[in-house]
Amino acid sequence: MIGGLFIYNHKGEVLISRVYRDDIGRNAVDAFRVNVIHARQQVRSPVTNIARTSFFHVKRSNIWLAAVTKQNVNAAMVFEFLYKMCDVMTAYFGKISEENIKNNFVLIYELLDEILDFGYPQNSETGALKTFITQTGIKSQSKEEQSQITSQVTGQIGWRREGIKYRRNELFLDVLESVNLLMSPQGQVLSAHVSGRVVMKSYLSGMPECKFGMNDKIVIDKQGKGGASEEAAAGKSGGGGGKQSIAIDDCTFHQCVRLSKFDAERSISFIPPDGECELMRYRTTKDIILPFRVIPLVREVGRTKLEVKVVIKSNFKPSLLAQKIEVRIPTPLNTSGVQVICMKGKAKYKASENAIVWKIKRMAGMKESQISAEIELLPTNDKKKWARPPISMNFEVPFAPSGLKVRYLKVFEPKLNYSDHDVIKWVRYIGRSGIYETRC
Amino acid sequence: MPAVSKGDGMRGLAVFISDIRNCKSKEAEIKRINKELANIRSKFKGDKALDGYSKKKYVCKLLFIFLLGHDIDFGHMEAVNLLSSNKYTEKQIGYLFISVLVNSNSELIRLINNAIKNDLSSRNPTFMCLALHCIANVGSREMAEAFAGEIPRILVAGDTMDSVKQSAALCLLRLYKASPDLVLMGEWTSRVVHLLNDQHMGVVTAAISLITCLSSKNPDEFKTCVSLAVSRLSRIVSSASTDLQDYTYYFVPAPWLSCKLLRLLQCYPPPEDGAVKGRLVECLETILNKAQEPPKSKKVQHSNAKNAILFEAISLIIHYDSEPNLLVRACNQLGQFLQHRETNLRYLALESMCTLASSEFSHEAVKTHIETVINALKTERDVSVRQRAADLLYAMCDRSNAKQIVAEMLSYLETADYSIREEMVLKVAILAEKYAVDYSWYVDTILNLIRIAGDYVSEEVWYRVIQIVINRDDVQGYAAKTVFEALQAPACHENMVKVGGYILGEFGNLIAGDPRSSPLVQFNLLHSKFHLCSVPTRALLLSAYIKFINLFPETKATIQEVLRSDSQIRNSDVELQQRAVEYLKLSSIASTDVLATVLEEMPPFPERESSILAKLKKKKGPGAVSVELEDGKERGELNGGGDRGGDAAIAASNASTPSPSADLLGLRSAAPVSGAAPSAGSLLVDVFSEAGPAASSAGVNDDGFLSALHAPEASDSPLVEGPGDSDSAPPSAASEDPAPPLPESDELLNKFVCKNNGVLFENQLLQIGIKSEYRQNLGRMYLFYGNKTSVQFVSFSTTVSCPGELQSQLNVQTKTVEPLVEGGAQVQQVINIECLTDFIDAPLLNIKFRYGGALQNISLKLPVTINKFFQPTEMAAADFFQRWKQLSQPQQEAQKIFKASHGMDTEVLKAKLLGLGTALLENVDPNPENYVCAGVIQTKAQQVGCLLRLEPNAQAQMYRLTLRSSKDTVSQRVCDLLAEQF
Q1: What pLDDT digit, counting tens, does each position of B878-920 carry?
Q2: Across B251-265, B412-426, B688-702, which has the greatest mean pLDDT?
Q3: Distance between CA A162 and CA A131 in Å, rounded?
Q4: Domain B867-980 falls in which CATH fold?
Q5: A window 175-204, beta carbon within 8 A of B
Q6: Which of A317, A415, B569, B860 falls 20 to 30 Å from B695 in CA-CA distance?
Q7: Residue B7: band (very low, low, confident or very high) from pLDDT cuts 50, 70, 90
Q8: Partner residue facing A336 (CB), from B34, B35, B42
Q9: Do B73 and A381 count as a contact with CB atoms less than 8 A apart?
Q10: CB-based contact (8 Å) between A382 and chain B?
Q11: What CATH number matches the domain at B744-864, 2.60.40.180, 2.60.40.1230, 2.30.30.240, 3.40.50.1820?
Q12: Location of each CATH 1.25.10.10 domain in chain B
C-alpha cells in the first residue's frame, strides 16, 4: 500500500507531502530528492529503491510526483493511481505546474484525503469527486443533495448521478491513436505497434445504456456467419486500406464497462459517466497502416563532410491531409556547419538539439517530399565513430493507423422518452506519431 | 605577475556562464551547451583565422564545459596554439586547458612539450613559471621523461630568478614523487643543498621540501645539509621578529621554514660535530625558552605558529633521544599543555608524551603527570583525546604505579566508548600480567575484566589467564576459589563460564574440601550455566565434566546421567554429540587407572611471547606500541613463569580439529600418555573396533565402485555421442569437374588409405608426390609437382574442389602455385584440410598446364579419406567388450567378408592396421589370430568412436571385417575402405 505521496518542483523542493503510514518518515522526502532528482546520473527507472523503501515516480513537465512505500505493492497499481491523480488534478485546475499546485494546495490535500485512504486507492473518478469536492467556496448542500451524493458514491454506479437532463442528447467519440515504428535503413519494419484510446464525451439524459461496436476481428468473425450486411457497411469508409477487421492484441476499459459481458460475448456495453471519459485503451501490432515512409541516404564524404538526403512519402488516400509534420535528422556531435535545401516546408539546423528539424504544415496522401543537407564536420582527435541515431518523425493524420472503425454506438434509455435516433453522434479519428523512427 | 586587465574580461564567457547558471533544468543546460559547442565548432572550423582573444575566449568556454562534466573532443589544437602566444593571459589559459585536459595524445604531446621547452628557455620568468607549473600540474611520466633533466639545471643555474627557482624546486619535487626513477641524481644534488643558504626565504622553503623528500630516499648524498640546516635554523631562531619582514607571521619568524628545517633534521641522527651539535642544542633550548615567554599577540595564529615549531622541536628531541636535559624540559613543557584550554593542544601533548614515556631519560618525568592524565581519561569530552590518554597511561605504566593505573583503567572501562573498549581490555590484560606482583591480584584483575567488559574480552585474554594459572602452582587454589565465587553471580559472561569450566575442571579438587564448594555443588553450578552457552563453550564444559568424573568419582553417576540425556547424546551439533558419546563410553568402559592417565592434569604450557601483545600490535599497527621495547627489558624480572604463552598448543588443537571449539583440555590431539589409552582419536577406533574397519572398507568399496562406474562413462562419451545427429545424407556421387577423374584415381586413392606419403600420380610429363600429416581434425598435405621434361610448363594451375556435399564436410584451403614450372624442376603446394564432419567422397585435384602449346588437363582424387582423422585409443579388453556391446544396434555395425587379395602376412597386416590410424589392441580377442583395433575419428562437429575386428581365415584365404561405430555412415565407409586393403 502507498505509504506516502510527495510532489516536488524541478529544484527538488517539496510542494505537497502527504504521509499515509507511519513507516514512511520525513527523511524519505530527502532521500528521493538526493537520489533521484539531484542524482549525478539521470535516473531513468521510474521505480527506485532506497534503503528498503520504494519510490515510484512520474514526471509531468517540471513536476515530480512520487509515491513511496515500504511494502511490496503492485507497481502497476501505484502507477495507475499516479496517472489517475494527474488526470484528476488536470480536471480540477488545468495544467500541472508549480504555479498551479501552489495555488491549489488546499484542494490537492483535500483530493489526496479522498482518493487515498490509509494508502489504499479509493474512488478517483473526476465526475464523482467534483460533486463533493468543489472549488467554488463552501456551498451548503441540502440534506437531499447530500444523501444523493452518498448514495451515488457508495452505490453500484458511482460514476453517474441520476436525474441528468439535456435538451439535446449529443455524444462525441474520438479515436486517438499513436503509431510507433522502428524501421531499418532498407525499409524493413523492425517493430511497429499502435496504441490507441477511445475517448467519449457524452451529454445524455437519464441513465442511458450504451453499446459500442467496432470492427474487432473476433466479433466480425463470429458474426460472419450471420450478419454479412453489417460487415459490408463497416468496410466501406476507410482511411488507408480497405481492411475489414482488426486484431486487437490487448485492451482495457473504463470501469463503467461491464466486463462480464465483454468476456462472455465480447460486446462493450456500459452506462457512461456524464461528460468526458476514456472508454477504452487498446494496442494492435498487426496490419498497421504506416502513414509515412522515410527513406534516408547518408553519405560520408571524407572526414569533414557528410551528405544527407531524406525522402518522405505519404502513404494514405490523396484526399486526406496530414498535419504538423516534423522530421528530425540527428547530426554528428562534431558538426561545424549545415546547409539545408528542402522542397517543401521549412528546415533548420538546431545546434542545441544536435539535429536538423524539418517542418511541413500539411501534406496530402500519396505525395513525396525531399530534403538534402550538407553537414560540415570538425576533425576531432576522438576515434569514436558517430553512432548514427535514427531519424524520427512527428505527424498527425485524420484516420486510425490501426484500421479501427467505429461500427455503431447505440443508446437505450428505457425510462426517458428518447431513442437511439434522436441522439446526435460525432466520430473523429486522429492518428499521431508515437516513436516513429527510421534508422539511417 | 601581470594582472588580468579589465579589457580582457571576456564578456562572451561571462554571458555563457550566467546563461548556464540560470538554466531551470538539466535539459535546458544541455541544450545551451550543445548550442555553444556548435558555435565554437563553427568558429574553429571557419576559414578566417581567429585572433588570440577569441581563441582564448572559446578555449575558456570549452574548459568550463569540460569542468561541468561534458566530454570535449576538440579544441586541443587551439589551446596548444595559445601556448605560443606572447600575451600572458592567453598563455595562461592555454596552460590551464592543457593541465586540465591533457591526455597522452601522441602528436599533441610533442607540440606541448615543444611549447614548454620554448618557454623554459625563454628569459621571461613569468613564462618559465607558467611552464613549470604546467609540468608540475600534469606530472605525468611523459612530462618527467621530457623535462627531468632540464629542471635541475634551471634550479641550480646561477642566473635564474628567485621565483623561477622556487617553482623549479617544487616542480622537481612533484616529478620525483610521481616517477622517482626518472629523476636522476647528479652533480646538481650537491648544489641543491646549498640552496639552503639562499638569500631568498621562498627559495629556501621550496628547496627544503625537495631536500627532505630526496634525503629520505638517499640520506648519504645529502648529509651536508645537516650543518647548513642547523645554521639556517639558528639564524631564524635567534632573529628578532622584525628581521625577516615578509616571512614573519604574527610575530613568529618564518614558522613554516623552521618546521621544515626541524623535520629535515629528523631524517638524520644527531650531528657528530660538536660545534654543530652545540648550536642545534642552543636552538632547541631557545625554542623551549620562547614557549615560556608571554605571547606577543592574543591572536590564535600566533600561538599556533609558535606551537607548531615547538612540537616539531620536541619530536626532534625525542628522535635524538640523547639529551636528558632537553627531554625533561620538553616533558615539563608538555605537562603544561596537558591542562591547556585548547583541546588540540591537549591531544598533541598526550601524543608526544606517549613517545617521551618510552625514553629512559624522561620516563620518570612523565610519571609525575599521572594524576593529570587519569583526570583527562575521566573528564575529557573528546573521545580521541581520551584514547590518547589511555595510550599514555599504558605507556607510562611500570611496576611502581601498575596497580593504580590498572585500577583506574578498569574503572574507566565501565564507561568507556565502545570503539576503544577492546583495546583497553587488551591493555589492561597486558599490564596486569606484566607488572603483577602477586598472582592473586592478577587473577582478580582479569576476572574483574571479564565481569566488566566480557563482550570485549577476546579469546587471547582468557587463554592467557588459563596458561598462567596452569603454569603457576601457587595461584591454582586461589584461582579455583575466585572463579567459583564469580560463577555464583546470577548472570555470568560466557567468557567467565569458559574460564570457570576450565579451571574447575583442572583444579576443582583444590577447593572440594570446603562443604560449600563440594564437587556436586561445583558441578551443579557449572551445569546451571550450560544451557545458556554457545556450542564451543558447551563443548568445553563437557570436557570439564569428564575431568570431574576423574577428579571426583562420586559425581560419576550424575554426570553420566547428564551425558546420557537426549539433549547431549542426540545433540544436533556433531561436535557436542561426539563428545557426549565418547565421554560417556570413556567413563563407563575405561578403568580408573586409564581414566586418570587420559584425564591427567594439563602439563605446563611452553614459554612464548604473550599472544595478547601480538594482538594489540596487530590492532594498532607497527610502531604504535612503543612499550614493547621496554617490555623486553622488564620481562625477566618478576614474571618468569607468567610470561610464557602456551597458545601455540591451543592454536594447534584448533587447527587440527575441524570444529570451532577450542579443545583446551588437549584430549583430542597430542595426548602425551602411555599406550593404554593412546589418544581419544584412536580410542574411538578401539571402542568401535567392530564397526570401524567394516565402515572404512565399505567406504573404499564404494569409492572403487564409483570410480569403476565413472571411468567407462567418461571415456565412452565420444562413442555414445554419435547416434543423435547421424542423419547426414548419403553423398552424391555426381562430380561436376571439368575433366572427369582418371579411371584409375579410385585405385590411387586406395593406395593411400594406410599410408600418408608416396607418389600419387606419374606419367611421361608429370610426377606428383605427396606427403601429408594429420592431427585431430586438421590435416596438412604437401603436393610436389615434378616436371619430368626439359621444357617448362606454362600457365600451370591447380584447383582443389569438393564436389557436392563434400563442401560442407571438408574445408580445403590451397595456396596457389607458380604458373611456370621449369623443366626438371619441382614445385610444392600446401593444402590445409579441416574435417568438419564425416565424409565419403574425396576432394578432386584438377591440374592444368600447357606443355608445348598443348593443354594438359588431369583430374585426380586427393587421397583424403575419413580414416586419416583417426586418433588411436588404447583400452583394456574389458573396456573394449563393454563398448562393443554398447554399439550393438544393427545400423552401427558394418561387416564384410571378402577374399584376400594379398598375402596374409601377420606383420604386413599389422602395419596396415596401424597405418589406418587406429590403435592395434593386443591380447583382447580370445583368438590370437584375430586383430582388434580402436580409434576415434576427430571431426570438427563431433567425435566418432570406432571399433574394428578383423578375423582372417588362413585356410579359405578369406577375411571377415567387422566395424562398429557410433555413426552408421562411418562404419560403412571405413569398412569399404579397409576391405580393399587386404
Answers
A1: 788 888 888 777 778 888 888 877 777 777 777 777 777 778 7
A2: B251-265
A3: 12
A4: TATA-Binding Protein (3.30.310)
A5: none
A6: B569
A7: low
A8: B42
A9: yes
A10: yes
A11: 2.60.40.1230
A12: 379-599
